[in-house]
Amino acid sequence: MYTKIGIIGDVHAEHEHLDTAIQHLKALDAEIIICTGDIADGTGNLDRCVELLQTHNVVTVRGNHDRWLLTDKVRHVANAHVRQHIAPASLDYLAGLPTQHYLPTVAGNLLLCHGMADNDLQKIWPGTERMPAERCHRLDEIIASDQVSFVVNGHVHYRTLIHFSNLLLINAGTLKRVHQPGFGLLDLNRQHIQGFEFEPTVRAVRCHSVTPGPDTTVFPNTQHFNGSWQPLTLYA
């Protein structure tokens, strides 16, 4: 069972950031590194990203951009890749990625996915003044099952923690340069998650406990999202 888990969000072909994040997490003795997918569509080298993920045995799930690339859909997005320019081995790798993956930790099971479970477009957001709530019946089912302690997902490119009564949702964010790129380390011995950012060099930023504090909003499930949440972020 894992105690120290490196967390990398949506890659979007940022091979330099991916390499840096993997090396930094390995230097911090991460027992396993996980990634929320969206390897495709960005200004960097997708083939190099695949090579890094495979070489370092990063547990990765498939995101919607990877699915779109494989099916030749939604290629009008900015910096979209096209199949003809990608190595066949990289396409095979993307095609073989699961939509979700469970792994055991000392504090319970962790579900890794891109959106939520097998829905790679699902957003989860308790609601703020600027963004309406995004509720999810599938996550509510997972919460009710009491079989999962942590969910790590991506898609919304915002590194944050959302506390539920018996589950912690960790959004891993992204490596994409225009979206405050960073990564994280979940340390269950110390019972916290540490955020990292790249500029000017890799540096530790906010660190939060995996258990809610006295001022932390805790939701029974997503149907209780009320639109007045104060985000708990892993940004500087």
Strand content: 25-35%
* Silhouette: globular
**How does CATH name the architecture?**
4-Layer Sandwich
Query: Cα distance, first to last residue?
Result: 30 Å
> What is the oligomeric state here?
single chain
CATH superfamily: Metallo-dependent phosphatases
- Structural class, by secondary structure, is alpha/beta
Arithmetic mean of pLDDT: 97
Helix content: 10-25%
> What is the CATH class designation?
Alpha Beta
Compute the number of helices: 5
* Count of the separate structural domains: 1
- Unreliable residue stretches: none
What integer value in Å does the Rg equal? 17 Å
CATH topology, which one?
Purple Acid Phosphatase, chain A, domain 2
In total, how many beta strands? Answer: 13
Largest sheet: 7 strands, mixed
The string of secondary-structure elements, in order, is EHEHEHHEEHEEEEEEEE
